[in-house]
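User: For a benchmark we're assembling, each entry needs the component sequences followed by a predicted structure for the full assembly. Here are entry 17's components. Please fill in the structure.
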Amino acid sequence: MKKYGYWFLLLIVLYAFQTSLLPIIAYNGQLPDLLLLFVVSFSLLEGPKYGTLMALGAGLLKGLASGTFFGVDAFIYVVIALVVGKFNNQVFREARFLPLVTSVGASVAYYVIFVVFLFMLGFRFSIINHVQSVLLPMVIYQFIFSYPIHRLTVKMDTLTRTKWSKNGS
Amino acid sequence: MKNPKEASNVYKNIWALALMLFALFCLVFLTKVGRVQFPVSSQVASVVLFPFQGGISLAVSEITTATTFISDVATAYEQNEALKKEVEELRKENLEASEYAAENERLRALLGYKNSKTQFDLIAARVIGRENATWTSMIIINKGSADGIKDLMPVVTDKGLVGHVVEANPISSKVQLILDPRSSVGALVQRPESRVMGIVEGDIGNAQMPRMVNIPMVADVVEGDMIITSGFGGVYPKGIIVGEVKELKNAPGGLLKYAVIDTSVDFQRLEEVAVIAASREPPPAPLPKKTGDAK
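Assistant: Structure for entry 17:
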């Protein structure tokens, strides 16, 4: 149980960083989505089952804390975790390339699903302008932050595995 | 070849996953129409996040102050030489400037600039978090219901309108900015000859500039017009500055147009805001004196 407490604390700290520190580097109102990057890395390391649960937790936290339509982030995170988790057995823990590519791909997938939701919710806007003003800065930010977040997740994963394997639980 | 027990578990997992995704999908639409709300859970999340967001926000503020100080010290010598020269020139101008300042002060008092703000009871607050997701624009402030903040209270700065409180938690509150596509503000053109009304709403396609919609094609609105709140809708008091018309565009359908608004508030540098806890009608202008009747 304590193990999950550590992961939950990391989620909260990442969200707090995302909303309190990163706005100073916002471009055109866009920020990196650290929770999405974390969900991607976690799913790569732990597989689809635990990845999906973490994605659900991260999505619900974001939905509750941000005031956006509740459930959108949780839905998208879960779908992404499910797909990314399939690559679980193909990633070396220290690998750089796949986490980077997966994070950028996941961000694009996040954007595409979000836009579909927006259209279903009745919002209308110019896709081309939106891609330029939202998707491009988002992808660049995600690319920059993906490796540090992946390293952080690997360290946390190693820490929890070592600690709990020693404790025998 | 999987044994029956394993196969059964796989089916169970698939069903659980499908059910979860379906539930989340439905939640999105139920939340949109307001059928589902999570006030308690949302408050718990805000309370848990508050110390982290508050601490990081404070640290960022301190670091910014420290780096500014270091930068100032590094350039102090050069600035000192330049400033010595400037001091001499400024001393000469000082006397004249003092006269202008005094005159300016009197004029400001005459115009009742300060009195114009007495119609609002303001609660000052600091921005401790910001959520700029793919399409939402919200900020989190460090004042909540314990400080007298309630839902739907307007939020302003000295420059103009910021948004309104959408969720007042005990120690913090969420503020929906006027840039948010879900936000709509009753507004009108300040120019006396125009006074055209419309609705200012966030634009998904342009996260930094909202737009004023529902303007008839023949309406008298030009670029550079100042837009203020109309007071209709019951949330925002009348007369708060929203921004300036940057560009006019034709709306789909050909009967209406919309104005792209350059907001008077710089949302990228929003640090302190004021929440309007109560507002009254502005005091009426004094009646002109009837000099002929005085005896």
